[in-house]
Amino acid sequence: MDTGGSSESPVEPKKGKSKTPRKPKDSVLKQKSPAEFFAENKNIAGFDNPGKSLYTTVRELVENSLDSSESISELPVVEVTIEEIGKSKFNSMIGLVDRERVDEALYDDYETTKAREKRLAKEARAQEIQAKNALLGKKVKETPASKGMKGRGDASFYRVTCKDNGRGMPHDDIPNMFGRGFNLTFQLKFPFNTDFSLWDKIWLEADTWKVWSWGKDGLPIEISSSMRNQSYISFCRLDIDIHRNIPHIHVHEKRDNKDQWRGAEIQIVIEGNWTTYRSKILHYMRQMAVITPYAQFLFKFISDAPEKNVTIKFARRTDVMPPVPLETKHHPSSVDLLLIKRLIEETSKQNLLQFLQHEFVNIGKSYAERLIGEMGPDFGPKMAVKSLTSQQIVRIHQLFRQAKFDDPSGDFGTLLRTCFQCLSPAGEYNLRLGIIKELHPDMVATYSGSAHIFEGHPFIVEAGVSVGGKDVKQGLNIFRFANRIPLLFEQGADVVNRTALKRINWSSYKINQTQDKIGVFVSIVSTKIPFKGTGKEYIGDDINEIATAVKLKSKITKKMQAREQQERKRSLNRYLNDVTGAVYGIISDTAKSRASKNKKKRYEDEDLDAETLREVSAKLITKERLKEELAQHIEKVDYEMLLEYATQSGVSEEPREAIYIQSLEAEPKFIDLHSPIFVFRLFQ
Amino acid sequence: MADKGKKKRRRQDPDSDEEESQQLPFKNILKSDSQILQIIKGFSSTSKPSSSKTLTLADLGLDSKCREVTELSLPDVQSAIESIALKATRSILAGNGFSFEVPSRSAANQLYVPELDRIVLKDKIIIRPYANVSTVRKTAITTRILQLIHQLCAKNIHVTKRDLFYTDVKLFQDQTQSDSVLDDVSCIIGCTRSSLNVVAAEKGVVVGRIIFSDNGDMIDCTKMGIGGKAIPPNIDRVGDMQSDALFILLVEKDAAYMRLAEDRFYNRFPCIIVTAKGQPDVATRLFLRKMKMELKLPVLALVDSDPYGLKILSVYGCGSKNMSYDSANLTTPDIKWLGIRPSDLDKYKIPEQCRLPMTEQDIKTGKDLLEEDFVKKNPAWVEELTLMVKTKQKAEIQALSTFGFQYLSEVYLPLKLQQKDWL
Fold first, then answer.
1. What are the residue boundaries of the DNA topoisomerase VI subunit B transducer domain, all occurrences included (chain A) (predicted)?
2. I need a surface site. Which of A171, A268, A386, B389 has the fewest CB within 10 A?
């Protein structure tokens, strides 16, 4: 395993983060290893700044853990711990002695005399204020130690630990999985020494690299894992030789597994920034809990200052898990040239006919023959797949693009069935449950769209709308999920946001867009999410799930109507007191003032009015009486409205069941089962 | 007063004359102040006798189809509220719940009467029953407001809209709700809003050659400092107007108003300067109308060159849709659009960097305005507005400051007056 990587220690002894590893000058055209690529392009992978890298790390680890658990149909239990490590502690961990600075002016955070004077003056002032406050007996928080000495802003180091109950990893594979760009639990079939341009296409899948490329700054990664029926825990400590894309193993051993633990635990130390990304990370965990109500999360943040510690538990609410995605074959119109090459390399089929028939969906034998005939005289059904030249592959690709394959519009049933087995949506039930569990809304409506095809990739949209709830701010709260992963960044341009803000007329649902607490949940599940931009955080605004949003409409309106029915009486009665109080206030005042002075006749209703006023003075009309009468009226109106509603919406046709009633004349033939609370009469 | 103004000017003139005549465009074609004064005097006197008698709805035979409110005395308002309450009581006791008959103030119920040159309310009435989910809230608020006004009448005091709102914040929730119901109540009773003894906070200010009495105190608006006198919220306090001004200058914005007040523009050309700082409130509109009616002076408006400037102009002139029920008292006929007009942008060579592109919303508002009757009646306005929508450029009054802060008072306005350049 450990070949040659040890000669140059990958842990660079200096703290400075040289973002671009020095390139050897002799070869201009150098093939970059994937890890190297990411080390140089951290922003692509979501590591643009320490805060975001902490977030991305947590995100990667949590998602890998969930995948791992789901792949063996186990209800996920994920524990995430973020531990803050002070700088000196970190230095000692990487074996670096805290050196005294000799030439102070050399450092970035060197204080010029002027700055120091300023700071000292400020501190003196602060102390003065504090002294004053102390004199006055006020409680003040300790002024934080001057920040200037911390260096590089607020960023410090964090140990992120993520523990799951997933599949675990085979002992021998661990170094390769982590050292080489395999994902944690899914082995991505991916040729690593291929053309470099490939990377921007599949980086999406090779997530662990991100953890790595950042992790190289600091300490090696630690992995413990145990698989089912495995008596030991594999423990591995390694880091990566980013230039050669091979693992560099420190420790790789088997340890006792006393309590039969199964799963994986990954521990890495990265530079991060908790203060600025705290809310993002917590937000992420919460959204994750919404979309995966079948998982249990425990999130902990530990730091030196105990008051900053956070522990949040998201409990499991259901045992229903989405189906495990099946690996399916590719739809011919969605493959690109590289994929065809890869498939050819990997296929076990010998000839072209079998290859076409078995590696793709929707190509039957006869159709494959027709395709081969169409390809030209160079091709034959019996020709060996592996012998295809690159020109020939291009020809196949061209044909795939042009040829007509059964489209969704055609043979919908079979195609979709095959296509959508590879999708694993959360399910309307789970989405609904998640929303209820985390937000406690007053009302939820969910919708699960039927599957569609976008550029050859199947996708399903699930959506939910909630109104009210706790911890929800007023206005629109949009929760976006792609393949059951929350998206938090770059929301402005996202299709969901655009739709929710501009294309939906909320008032037609009697929802006030600015005052009601609206939650919008949209989850898109697809084999390929049409992300725009490299940030992988938003979906382009050109797909047609507006249609889905519109379909939500009827459901919400119906819900709203039902709610209105329920609330009518309540809202009518709400103002009863105000109204009767006001009316009675006017007439009793009038009665008083009119009694004191003689009024001249002015209105035609004068007599009636006078009569009413007399009754008021005589306490025949009181506020209570008004209230009673009005309440009765409301009762009446409510009843009428209810009848109307019932006749309009119709009685729902439920299956009728025969009921058995005792005949009046029949002889009493029964046994009474007595209990202190009830009697159970059993007829014979 | 005039002498003081001249002195002031003389002080400025010697040092600024030569350089400024080069700097400030069009300054050279400006005639002397006395000549300009002569021009305005001519205009002012010709415009006087024109408004002898104002038409009313009854004159047009429209009074049956349209609804208009009148000034009512406090006891009248009080007894009107009482009879409404008693009617409601009887209806409740009869087991029918209760409802109010509220004249609709929606856009569909408005009518522009060209003969009157203002918007009036048609006679559509909406029944607002209590026992209905969609109207229950409004009805409750209406009842409460009725009670509060009843109390005001009994005590004979004035309160502001804000006061009214705070008497029952929990029910009203936000002030727009109590405000809009207040207008409804005016309509139900059929009186002006000021008859309800509810006023808005002071917003408008006036400065210049006018003397009037406010609750018995004589106010000379030339001696009110630069800020001017706040326009009293209830117009019945105001009386005994006297003025030697030649015209009234209506300014959209506070900034331009301040410039003119500080430069004592009203001493150079005797005038009264009024602003409501944006959309005019009821008090300012009432005050302007009163000035126009009693002093018989022409009104010249200086507003931004954007759709909203014109809209504000229209509110002074034809009334707002929201308060069309009282347009008879609130509108001032025959307001001239002095500036800044879209054609001025090129005429006065306002540089590109001071013009703003119109937003989509602006353009839409502009196009909607073109459909409005009060714009259509004046072909010159239509022309200007069409130009604005076509060039898609707008400019604020402050755009003139690009030639110097005082360009507005030193050159632009005098030149406009000299050329009688208003529509």
1. 421-566
2. A386
Structural domain count, chain B? 2
- The answer to whether the peptide bond before residue A242 is cis (omega within 30 degrees of 0) is no
Q: Over the Cα atoms of chain A, what is R_g?
A: 35
Contact call for B92 and A589, based on CB within 8 A: no
When pLDDT is cut at 50, 70 and 90, the band that residue B201 belongs to is confident
ipTM: 0.78
Helix (H) or strand (E) holding A159: strand A156-163
In a domain, B363, yes or no: yes
d(CA B195, CA B70): 9
Q: What is the pLDDT of residues A50-86, one digit of tens each?
A: 777 777 777 777 877 777 777 777 788 888 888 887 7
Would an 8 Å CB–CB cutoff place B23 in contact with chain A? no
513-572 in chain A: CB under 8 A from chain B = 564, 567-568, 571-572
Residue A35 has, within 13 A of its CA and on its CB side, a CA count of 23
Alpha helices in B30-135 (DSSP H): 33-47, 57-60, 74-93
The rounded distance, in Å, linking the Cα atoms of A221 and A10 is 13
Question: Quick check: A612 contacting B, CB < 8 Å?
Answer: yes
Q: Which DSSP state fits A621?
A: S
Contact yes or no for A342/A191 (Cβ under 8 A):
yes
pLDDT of residue A536: 44
Asked if A233 contacts A261 with a C-beta cutoff of 8 angstroms, the reply is yes
Q: How far are the Cα atoms of A559, A568, A632, A651, B28 from residue A571, in angstroms, in the given order?
A: 17, 5, 15, 25, 71
B20, part of any domain: no
Same domain as B374, residue B232: yes
Mean pLDDT of chain A: 66
Q: What are phi and psi of B316, to 5 degrees?
A: -65, -40
Joined tokens for residue A421: 């087995």
Active site residue B266: no
Cβ atoms A211, A38 nearer than 8 A: no
pLDDT for res A542: 43
Residue A28 has pLDDT above 50, yes or no: no
Q: Do A583 and B83 touch (CB under 8 A)?
A: no
In degrees to the nearest 10, what's the CA dihedral of B174, B177, B183, B186?
A: -90
Q: How many CB pairs under 8 A join A and B?
A: 102
Shared-domain flag, residues A378 and A488? no
Contacts of B79 in chain A (CB under 8 A): 602-603
- pLDDT of A531 > 60? The answer is no
At CA A637, angle to CA A632 and CA A642, rounded to 5?
A: 125
The DSSP element (H or E) to which B253 belongs, if any, is none
> Has residue B270 been placed in a domain?
yes
CATH of the domain at A494: 3.30.230.10
| pLDDT at residue number B274 | 94
What range defines the domain where residue B351 resides?
A: 200-419
A452: left (phi over 0), alpha (psi -120 to 50) or beta: beta
The model's pLDDT over A189-245, given as tens digits with 9 standing for 90+, comes to 333 333 333 333 333 334 444 444 444 455 677 778 887 777 788 888 776 665 665
Boundary of a domain, candidates B143, B173, B199: B199
Q: pLDDT tens, B83-118?
A: 888 888 888 888 888 888 898 888 888 888 888 888
Residues B96 and B179 occupy one common structural domain: yes
pLDDT value at residue A146: 39
- Annotated ligand binding at B304? The verdict is yes
pLDDT digits (tens, 9 = 90+) for A250-275: 778 887 777 777 788 888 777 777 77
Asked if residue B58 belongs to a domain, the reply is: no
CB crowding A180-190: b at 16 or more within 10 Å, else e: bbbbbbeeeee
CA gap A524, A460 in Å, rounded: 6
Least CB–CB distance from B150: residue in A580, A586, A638:
A586
Chain A residues in contact with B140 by the CB 8 A cut-off are 575, 578-579
Q: What is the CATH number of the domain that holds B156?
A: 1.10.10.10
